[in-house]
Amino acid sequence: MNTPISPFARIVADLRPQLENTSPERALGAASQARKGPTELALLLSPGAARASGELRQRAHHVTRARFGLARNLYAPLYISNHCGGRCPYCGFGAQQKFSRRRLSVEEVVEDAKILRDQGVRHILLVSGDDPRVDLAYLTELLEELRLFATSVQVELPAMDVESYRALAKAGVDGVTLYQEAYDPDVYQALHPSGPKADYEWRLDTLERAGRAGMVYLGPGALLGLAPFRTEVLSLGIHALGLEKRCWKSSLSFGLPRLHNVPDGFSILHPVTDEQLIQVVVALRLCFEDAGITISTRESAELRALLVDIGATRLSAGSRTEPGGYKEPGSAQPQFSVGDSRTVAAVARSLEEAGFDPVLKDWDRGFASKGIKENGNKYNR
Ligand code: SF4
Fold this sequence. Notes:
This protein starts with 8 loop residues before the first helix and ends in a 6-residue tail after the last helix. It has an eight-stranded parallel β-barrel with strand order 1-2-3-4-5-6-7-8, surrounded by seven helices. The relative contact order is 0.16. The chain is globular. Helix content is 41%, strand content 12%. It is an alpha/beta fold. It has a single domain (60-376), classed as Aldolase class I (TIM Barrel). The structure holds iron/sulfur cluster.
């Protein structure tokens, strides 16, 4: 197979001098620009920006307060299957890993959703490995049931075509999260030489397909640790600028998953430090003032508390990363181990103690009069 070509490669190459900038003054100047684009993002990701981190953190903090106030969204992932045809070497679900796999029935998914509902969580992210039996028929049946327990259902599933996303939107899904994993095409191809994720361009176009299908929330991201973070996040930003232009009806929320524990035999070649992750959040916040930034339970409670104050707007809480993990914790293989294992209540409490408003539910189907007329009080059960 030919090596894929990144549509951003030329811009990233042209911005090397800015990305390697060593002057804090230039980075601060970029932060002061009213309109920011790839050049400013490159300067804010540079080593020079790292040397102005105190001032830039303050500015990011003020932008986040001005745009999002004190509200911070909480959600929980709900894993439905750890079957996977992919062989991504960095992932606990890869087909090369030998363990007994589990796919939840619709009833089992509902049991986990009820447990989350009882914890107050009404925003769910459905997650699955690349499992052909997690198909549209199964998902549609599942979504019909989940409407009773969740006010927002988003998905982190294998890449789909527009028609499939349209069907999911019609069934109640309002957002799609899909990480490019590595924007560097050489790294991408080395990690996904065959199988369902081998097509770099198809994956790169996925969120645009989801936007065209009417998804309200689009979640781009890069898996930090696979390739040098500065070029990866610059590519992510250029990707997001294109999504903002072409999918202007949708809202963006960046995902910044960082590799910590990986399967035996895989090494994290480009580890990202806490300071570097903070720099990434600052740079994205300053360049994308209205975009959400999601920080998952891969990160520690302490770091999440810091990032929420600087720029993160959406946190997972009480997460289990194995199918059936809310009803039967530990009964199946997880995708990764979490760094913040606090309960939903504990995460919400710590946000409140820091002066934030944790938001577990920001929409009720009862607001839609059409829903009331057609469905009576069904949604309020
Ligand atoms: S990253 Fe996705 S496709 Fe790859 S092994 Fe993990 S679950 Fe499967």
